[in-house]
Design a protein that fits this description.
Chain lengths: ~475, ~525
Amino acid sequence: MTPPQRGGVLSRFQVGFVMLGLVLIVATLVGFLPPDGNERADWLQFIGRFHPLLVHFPIALFLLVPILEIVGRSSRFVHLRLSVSFVLALATLGATSAAILGWCLGRSGGYSGRLIAQHMWGGVAQSIVCWVCWLLRTRLRELSVMYVSALALGVGLVAFTGYRGGQLSLGPNHLTEYMPNELRNLLGVEHNGETSSSNADPNTFYGARIQPIFTARCVNCHGADKRKGKLRLDNYQALMRGGKDGPVIQTGNAQNSDLFRRITLPASHDDFMPKGKQPLTTDEAKTIELWIAAGASGTLAVEAIKNAPRGSPAPAEVHVEEIDPAVVTKLRSALAPTVRQLQKQFPNILDYDSRGSADLRLNASILGSKFGDRDLEAFAPVAEHVIVADFSRTSISDHSAAAIAAMKRLRVLRLVNTRLTDATLLRLDTLIQLESLNVYGTPVTAAVLPTLAKLPKLSHVYAGQTRILAGKSVPENLVGRLVF
Amino acid sequence: MSDSQARPRIPADPVITSGSPTEVERAFLQARTRRHFIRSVGGGLGTLFLGTLASKFAPSVQAAGAETAALDFSRDPGTPLSTLPPQFTAKVRRVIYLHMAGAPSQLELFEHKPELKRLDGQDCPASFLAGKRFAFISGVPKLLGSQYPFHQAGQSGQWISDRLPHIEKQVDDICFIKSMRTDQFNHAPAQLLVQTGNPRLGYASFGSWVVYGLGTENQNLPGFIVLLSGGKTPDGGKQLWSSGFLPSVYQGVQCRSHGEPVLYLDNPQSVSRSLRRSMLDTIDEINQETYAAFGNPETVTRVAQYEMAFRMQMDATDAMDIRKESDSVHAQYGSKPGEASFANNCLVARRLAERGVRFIQLYHWGWDSHGADAKEALNLGFNDRCREVDQPTAALLADLKSRGLLEDTLVVWGGEFGRTPMRENRGGQEMKYVGRDHNPGAFTIWLAGGGVRPGISHGETDDMGYEIVKDPVEIRDLHATMLYLLGFDHHKLNYKFQGLEQKLTSVKPARLVAEILA
């Protein structure tokens, strides 16, 4: 090894020592002044916010080094290896600065917990490894085993620290959150929603009603991994221990409990929780209030608090399907010409169930006695598409029994004030989709009930003004479904 | 801009030159030069850029515009009332709206407030009065507890007062919304808001919208029929069933419950039906000539209206004739053929519902219980109003239910606002009769029928029944929900007028009250 030029060596060592000094400073800071979950709105936090911005540069620079080394082995790219040392120096500087900013953020941004500790020590280790790599690379002409293993260690650290950082900012399972279920099963990754670590007894009020609220609304910031304000709400003991300002719950007194005060503040208030999120619903707040008032016990039975709002789940948002005209046209293509022709012949009594549907509604009652058996025959081609049919007050007779029975998809059938008798109704056992049957004012008798009882979906039979009598010879599964 | 500047080269009035739109278009295209093209490219790019910005910064604008094409409500001008399918599968096919004009007191009917009863006669707290406007209350009024006892009724255990013993029997089919709210405290604008979605004149009524959207199955009767119980016409007047900016064929037709159901429908003396027919045929011929010459669809609409009136001469009279009902039905409704009453109208409403009329609107009157005289006192006239509507309303519900009509009919009962928990003290004086002032802040409307969750109560007011503490429902929310039941997204049932896609729920965002849906 030939001694290099004097001045060059000195300056290189000076640079090296400055870097080491910085690394040691950040290590000391992390060791002696770890993040304590307090928030400090001062310069520290302002500077710290630049950590996520800066951190990506040393990552890219460091990952570039093995690439340069490998590609540089080829004689065509040998010149690339000349820059390795420079890139490493930059990466070391960047990593150290990022670590310092990271400490600023962690120290003042209200973080504490396992995740942040691992992330910070990962960052410090990364800076040291960078520095060692740079030192080894500038000292040695050949690639040594030590240098290569230091590089490999560095790459591993980048992955580990980066992943922890991602968990801090995006949530503990940010990588697998949207993993398809097939892949989940293959890799043995837990399913969403099953990750809840709550082990609270579901028979207690706390376990059944309180913890689920915290788990859904609070634990992201006040959990085992990220404990803003040193407060954890993921189990009963931690909840009662409180946060950096002491207990958040005063048993028996909701109004004086900091937790209840904060969740009921207006969302614009500085102390409002959950910060930046939707406020808890009035039902959720009421449940918590009653629980605190009842002593905030972890063992109180679930049914002990009588008047707790029955956390009725928010009604499903009504969702309206968009209509795709092309799909509808295709759906109707087979019957559209027939329907058009029937609509011309019998205006306004036949139409589609909706603009997105190929099902039909037939309302012959409008034509009254002018509509008879012969007219009904015309509808035979579309019989299986009719889901609602109203023949009330028409003059159809039992001759139409087959035509009605052919409407196999009928959900609603109305025969009010017609001449139809048992003969027709006994043939309607084909209407397995039928939900509502109206025979008001027909001469139908109780003899049809056993047939109707076999229709699985039938929920209403309007049997007023018929020969069916309330409470008499009604089959068991029609009880309560007959309307008089 | 470039287009309008290009126009001077085109003949000024297309109708005078040829009347053929294709020729106009051709002339227009010929007049366009390369300069026009380049100018519109510049402007067009800018427009595109702004368009993308707008979609970023105003997601609602984007949502409204980017959704699928508007629904098509166009019809053959000769059959403007022909049926159209709803946007999506609907539970409700028709509406019977029972409007209690004057605003019945929720505190005497549906709102059980024991705390208010306890504080009866005490001075109203200042916080109730600060910043509020009242129609008549002045100074410090006294709190007024309910004048009638309440009890729980039915399997659902809903609270109701003893004034409505018949409706009480149907309570398990009723869905109360106790947190209705309006921003109008005078009758006419408040009624307009409830019926047209807007407190000002000139907007289309609910019934008009529904008939515009769905048409009507029975072409021999109007699709939207209005019945008054005699007495006073509602303060909102005939605007309440106006079609506003919608084509006039969709307006409500007021029918009388005795005599001729529709005025001037019958043939004049010594004019026979066949003479009428030949007269109409001649008029139609002339109208057809006019249409061929001018192509105005309103001409065809006019022909269609004449034809409908001719058909109605038979069917309307039959539909309105309650003498055809049996005595037991009259006993059930308390109806007496020949007089103008709410009971008769309820029976007519059922007959119209059977005949496929889309929207049946009943108005009762006299609910404005200020206590200024005996007729509008809570302890006098109010009782009469309750008696007039209680039995027929209950009979209508029961009758619809037993005939299987309730499963696809929506029945709505309510006024235009609520009444105060304070006793009215007109001029700061204690009045001879007991009454309450207008309260737009909270009132009760109930629904029954298809698609509605029966036997529930939605929303809550405070212990005084004065303000809403849970789940407020604006009029537009109710409208959006009713339109949903009829098969429409309230944004989609619209009509272009004055540069806006006008809709029943107007421009403020409306919330579908999903909690009351079955």
